[in-house]
Every structure is written in structure tokens, then in C-alpha cells.
Amino acid sequence: MNTYSSRLLEQCVNELAKLPGIGRKTALRLSLHLLQQDPSNVESLSHAILEMKNNIRYCRICSNLSDTEVCQICDNHKRDKEIVCVVSDIRDILAIEKTAQYNGVYHVLNGIISPIDGVGPSDLNIDSLVERIAEGEIREVIFALSSTIEGDTTSFYLFRKIQDHKVSVSTIARGIAIGDELEYADELTLGRSIMNRMPYQNAVK
Amino acid sequence: MNTYSSRLLEQCVNELAKLPGIGRKTALRLSLHLLQQDPSNVESLSHAILEMKNNIRYCRICSNLSDTEVCQICDNHKRDKEIVCVVSDIRDILAIEKTAQYNGVYHVLNGIISPIDGVGPSDLNIDSLVERIAEGEIREVIFALSSTIEGDTTSFYLFRKIQDHKVSVSTIARGIAIGDELEYADELTLGRSIMNRMPYQNAVK
To answer: What domains can be seen in chain B, in order of their start residue?
Structure first.
């Protein structure tokens, strides 16, 4: 006999339990929750998943997720197309957009160079970035990658690839997070934040 | 402009975020995970959810979830049909089945009497339990409800409903959980476990 009294329930639990961070207990709880919902609600969930999977596209220019060939950001004439912020993941775009501090466009690498995970430069959207820069309309490239060995490696690799082009290259500031206490900061961050100290007027403006 | 660059992504996030215990951040993570999967995997998830919702049934006898009119437990001739264990939820059946200590059948109330949540006796599968008992083939009814005020109220209500029938009524043992230290047990549990002490030979057999 099965653990579950229904094969249909078991299949639903199995499928939900394949999702990251969802174990069998949670999957069962979600399945039983769905059984108590209105059929139309369950249908819209199922439909939304399939619709997204089948119809979503990647922006031809920056590889951001999009419903159209060119994403809303690349297509927005108010955005400064001369500044490109390079991120590893579309979640980073969402995070940066939330700050409301950036008015340029993006380029999604779709990953980060990580030999341990078998991810090399050719697996990332690097060629398309170089092509964008080669077109000559970009003034500045900002690396917004994680402050890890992989992130630094990727930034360095990108820098070597584009250094011959006439663009200024910057990276987002590293330092003590706002609200953090100095005594709890790690030595590396604190050390770098002293090395890379900035004029007081710039920091508070 | 939207938070998300794609309406399709946003809809999927919205739908997933309706599930209990899943916030918008998790929903986004799940959506992006699904986008990286094989289309066939996503289809089987979406399909399994709909199939379950549309085709699952409740056992005609005990209200357990089932693919057929009568569930695997009620339909199993090796189970003792004269003992009925009353539970509030099908998850309780799974928990009891896992112990492999019970060979009777079940009755799922599908909730518990809880005036605060607006759940009265008429919202539960109580009439069908009384009918099953009135048929006269049941020897013993075991209440396996939570040890809360609601659980105790429900047990008492059920007891009053079935006390005139010729069945013995029992409730699962309350006491100190196996592996628990006495000094950390709450007073009520410890007090009851002294009141309801049992012959040593029974406890260790």
C-alpha cells in the first residue's frame, strides 16, 4: 500500500516536492490546501505556471525576462542607454530597480563564472555584452556582481574583455552596510572600506 | 512600470504567493526555478495539480482522500472493520499509518468543533459517523483528536452523540512523550499522566 491513500495526491506531492526548498511535508500541506480551494483558483495557478513557461521571452538586448522581444527597460526612452549595469541574475535587476537610484539599462549574464559548478565564460551572455559595447554607443559599464571570489573573477574576466573599448568601467561600492556596527564588520570588508575611503562630501550628498 | 519586467512572470508569482507559507520572494524564486526547468517537467507539475483537483474523491465510507469510491483502507479485507479511529484530518491518518500500530479503519471528521473559527458540529462529518455506528457492526470507536480545548470539546460532543449505541469508546493516551524529560513537561500533562497511570506491565509490553 502507498503512503498516501490516493495516487493523484501522491503525484501532486511528488511534483511539488521537486521545487527548491519544498519538502514532502510542505508539499502535502500545499496539496491539501489546493484541494480545499475553489476549482477556478487551482486552475489559474496551473494555468499561470504553464503560460509563463510557454510564452515568456528573454529580451533580445539585455536578456531580461520579457513578454515582448525587447524588455520594458530597454524599450523605455527615458532610460539612459549609454550606461549598462551588468548583473548575474534577473533578481538583481529587481533589487536595483527597487532602490530607484539607477536610470541606465542592464545586461544579464545569466550566471557567474564558477569552475566548481562547471560554469565557464562561454555559458554566460558575455559575447552579447561585448557586441553591445562594440557598437560604440555605451559610455559606462557598471559591474554589479556579488562580492565573492566568483563575482570578482567574473568582473576581472569582463574587464579584460572590454578594456580595449572606449568605455569607463566601474563596480558598485563595497564597504560597511548602512546600519551596520563597525565592531561586527569582517576584517576584509573593513580593511577595504578604509583603503577605498571616499571624500566625506560625496558620501553624504 | 511593473515591479517585474514580465506580466507572465508577475501572474505566476501572484498565484504561487497565494499558497500558505509562500511569500512573494519565495514565489519569485520558484518561478525562476521553473523557467530553468525542462518544459515537460513544468507541464507535469501543472498537470498533476489540475488532475488531483479535478479527479480526486472522498471515500464514501470514511471521507479519506481516494482515487476510487471506497478508499484503499476501507477496501482492504485485512483491516479490522469493527474498530474505527476518528481523526480530524487526513494528515492524521498518514501519521497513524506510519506507526504501523493500527489495523482498524478510520473516520475523517474534516475539521474540529471550533466556535472561534465558526466551525460547528454540522460542518463536520459527524452524522455519517453516527450512521456507521448505528449499522451495528462497529465494536470500538477511538478518538484520536488533538489535545486542545477544541479537540476535547469535539471528543465530548461525539461521545454524547454515540453513547447510547453499543460501542466501547476510547481516546488515545495522553501523557509524557517518549524521550521527554519530566522536569520540562507542563504541569497539566504531568498531572494527568499521574492520574491516568497504568500498570507497569502494560506500559512496557
So the answer is: 7-55 (1.10.8.420), 65-172 (3.40.1360.10), 176-205 (no CATH)
